[in-house]
Design goal:
Shape of chain B: globular
Number of strands of chain A: 3
Radius of gyration of chain B: 11 Å
Largest sheet of chain A: 2 strands, antiparallel
Number of helices of chain B: 2
CATH class of chain B: Alpha Beta
Number of helices of chain A: 14
Strand order of the largest sheet of chain A: 1-2
Strand order of the largest sheet of chain B: 1-2-4-3
Strand content of chain B: 25-35%
Order of helices and strands of chain B: EHEHEE
Oligomer: heterodimer
Structural class of chain B: alpha+beta
Strand content of chain A: under 5%
Shape of chain A: globular
Number of domains of chain B: 1
Helix content of chain A: 55-70%
Order of helices and strands of chain A: HHHEHHHEHHHHHHHHE
Number of strands of chain B: 4
Structural class of chain A: mainly alpha
Largest sheet of chain B: 4 strands, mixed
Largest interface: A-B, 44 and 36 residues
Chain lengths: 364, 73
């Protein structure tokens, strides 16, 4: 199958499943949202106590299982790590704070646009601005350094954590929280949500689907490849919402959204900026972690801590707007991420990039 | 004196760094041979796509656990 068909299929099926997940119980315009679902998981584990957003969303472990299966199937699974793990953890933390001020990851931003939420268009402008900012540093030689091959066991740990989440979800031990009301109580049936996660994980691994990468590669290389995935999600989800009568264009009264333009813009800018430095959007980080990249796994842990902080310290937005603490967190986050970006630039081509005199490597 | 052949080592780098490294090289050298060593499938695919878009011919060879991409124009 040609790569272009693969990415169009991955995007299209993700868009269709997202609409169906909402139809069968997920919160509006939230068929998938990596940020929101990780926040719900953080709540379910008791890492924060916001009673409305606690559920061990099966889409996330499903996605990891699907991506893992694809990487085993294609023999691409490889345990890698050692590329600035702590820096990635901190970047992940602030990316999550930004996304929870916007109220969604780039994937949900597309789904919100497909539902007619015009605030998501403001978010898109912010995302593009954040990506451009990240590219400025990439062009200056930004790098978090290389990862090295690790023993296979390292690569399986992330998968193991997800399997434990699934067991918790099925056994429902008393220390796991499940929202009785609010977005966390709105759920598609477990088997469907898990299956949809597996399918999207599999397709995202095969196609390298990345919602930040699409914008980044278009600006950097005039490469449309990943952007096709972005547009396919938008087109199919928009069509699905129109068919099901779930499309309502406007700024006010949109589900699980606020219409404070400045913070929609800045929250998503934070998310886009950090994601470019991390090498991909939250969805891509999950897929990369499933393929054995332990740095991406640490990034996901950073997301979880960010979500816990966002709700423990009243930083996350709600339909009522963005609390002062959340505004401070985004500004602080932009400063911290800029500093990390600035001090991680290498001027010129470093000697590490080049191996001299290895012309015969192809034969071994 | 024989010129030492350079191989760009893009192993263990996440997107889009491997592609950027190759693009920088292409900007310095509009034709000739560029060799890149990678160890992940996305890096291999992204570099191949960039090369094709820019009119370079590519050959890919296994190099132990890694993968050596040769671009010629």
């Amino acid at each position: 199958m040609s790569p272009r068909i693969t990415i169009l299929l991955a995007g299209g099926i993700t868009g269709a499943l997202a609409v169906l997940l909402v139809k069968y119980g997920n919160p509006p315009n939230m068929g998938y949202c990596i940020a929101c679902f990780l926040r719900d998981i953080a709540g379910s584990l008791g890492l924060h106590r916001a009673a409305a957003v606690q559920y061990l969303r099966p889409e996330i472990p499903g996605l990891v299982l699907g991506a893992f299966a694809a990487s085993i199937f294609t023999r691409e699974f490889k345990a890698l790590g050692g590329s600035a793990a702590l820096t990635r953890f901190v970047l992940g933390f602030f990316v999550m704070l930004g996304l929870l001020v916007f109220l969604g990851c780039p994937l949900r931003m597309i789904l919100r646009m497909a539902g007619g939420d015009l605030n998501a268009l403001v978010g898109l402008l912010g995302l593009v601005a954040g990506v451009v900012l990240g590219i400025v540093f990439l062009r200056r030689g930004f790098s978090l350094g290389r990862a090295f091959v690790q023993t296979k066991a390292n690569g399986y740990i992330f998968l193991g954590i997800m399997v434990v989440f699934l067991i918790f979800l099925l056994v429902r031990p008393s220390f796991i929280f499940f929202s009785a009301e609010g977005p966390g109580s709105l759920r598609a049936p477990l088997a469907f949500a898990l299956g949809a996660g597996i399918i999207v994980g599999f397709l995202a691994q095969r196609s390298r689907l990345c919602l930040v990468g699409g914008i980044r590669d278009f600006i950097l290389f005039r490469d449309f490849y990943l952007l096709y995935g972005f547009l396919a999600i938008l087109a199919v989800a928009l069509a699905g919402n129109l068919i099901l009568g779930n499309f309502k264009a406007g700024f006010a009264g949109q589900p699980i959204a606020h219409n404070d333009g400045l913070w929609n813009f800045l929250g998503m800018a934070m998310g886009g900026f950090g994601s470019v430095l991390l090498g991909g959007c939250p969805l891509r980080q999950l897929v990369s972690a499933s393929e054995g990249n332990t740095d991406s796994a640490v990034t996901v842990l950073g997301f979880l801590l960010g979500a816990a902080f966002a709700h423990n310290f009243g930083l996350a937005a709600s339909p009522k707007g963005v609390p002062a603490g959340g505004q401070v967190a985004v500004v602080l986050g932009l400063v911290v991420v800029s500093l990390i970006a600035f001090f991680s630039c290498r001027t010129g081509v470093s000697k590490q990039e080049v191996i001299a005199g290895e012309g015969d490597r192809g034969s071994n | 004196m024989k010129e030492i052949e350079e191989v760009i080592d893009a192993r263990g780098l996440l997107c889009p760094e491997p592609v950027l490294m190759v693009k920088r090289k292409m900007e310095k050298r509009s034709e000739g041979t560029i060799k890149v060593l990678v160890n992940t499938a996305p890096a291999r695919e992204n570099i191949s796509r960039l090369a094709r878009n820019q009119g370079w011919q590519i050959t890919i060879a296994a190099a132990g656990e890694d993968c050596l991409i040769t671009l010629v124009k």
